[in-house]
TrEMBL record:
InterPro entries attached to this UniProt entry: HMG_box_dom, HMG_box_dom_sf
Entry-linked PROSITE patterns: HMG_BOX_2
One GO cellular component term: nucleus
Residues annotated as domain HMG box: 28-86
Source organism: Paramecium octaurelia
Keyword 4Fe-4S on entry: no
Official protein name in the record: HMG box domain-containing protein
Source organism superkingdom: Eukaryota
Alphabetized UniProt keyword annotations: DNA-binding, Nucleus
Positions of the DNA-binding region: 28-86
CDD domains in the cross-refs: HMG-box_SF
GO molecular function per UniProt: DNA binding
Length: 86
């Protein structure tokens, strides 16, 4: 038996209910760029429209959507990003 097989046999499987809940901390919020905020707002829409897409295809779609935004539409996300950084 290989080392990794022995290691795998000895690992305990965690129950998801026993894990602590994940929360965004203020530090996490400070790292959100304008594009990340846009992505959070539109990822569900892209998943509904293209359920067959993987992560890479969804990200490419979001990048394309971001590039096609007007300056006024981008300005909203830039301002939100600046507010979170303070």
């Amino acid at each position: 038996m290989k080392d990794w097989q022995l290691w795998a046999e000895n690992q305990q499987i965690l129950n998801p209910e026993e894990l602590p809940p994940l929360h965004f901390t203020p530090k996490d919020q400070k790292n959100k760029s304008a594009f990340k905020l846009f992505k959070l707002d539109h990822i569900v829409e892209v998943k509904k429209q293209h359920p067959e897409y993987g992560f890479k295809e969804r990200l490419e779609t979001l990048k394309h959507m971001w590039r096609n935004l007007t300056k006024d539409e981008k300005f909203i996300y830039v301002q939100k990003s600046k507010q979170l950084k303070f």
